[in-house]
Amino acid sequence: MRYFDDANIRTQVNIEFANFSGRREDFDDADSLRDRSKMDAKSWWIVLGTHAPTLQKIALSYLDNHVLLLVVKEIGVPTLSYIL
Questions:
Q1: The domain containing residue 35 runs over which residues?
Q2: Is 32 inside any structural domain?
Q3: Domain count, the chain
Q4: Does 1 map to a domain?
Q5: Confidence class of residue 1 from pLDDT cuts 50, 70 and 90?
Q6: pTM to 2 decimal places
Q7: According to DSSP H, which parts of the chain are helical?
Q8: What distance in Å separates the CA atoms of residue 59 and residue 47, rounded to the nearest whole number?
């Protein structure tokens, strides 16, 4: 299963990911590079991920879900069905 069925959107996301992972385009500036190791991931994506809006949305959604799962695990809820 593909995350994006629309080929045009999938191509745009691939370009955004290539720029991010390759430290190209807007991701090659000093602030972006320095802050990757200085900021927590969510803050970094909120502040510096605006040049890749689709990738930013995915990252923030993943980070929010990851935190939710950690909280659920911490309070001892065995599945998410109890809080949905």
A1: 7-82
A2: yes
A3: 1
A4: no
A5: very low
A6: 0.67
A7: 7-21, 30-38, 41-48, 53-75
A8: 12
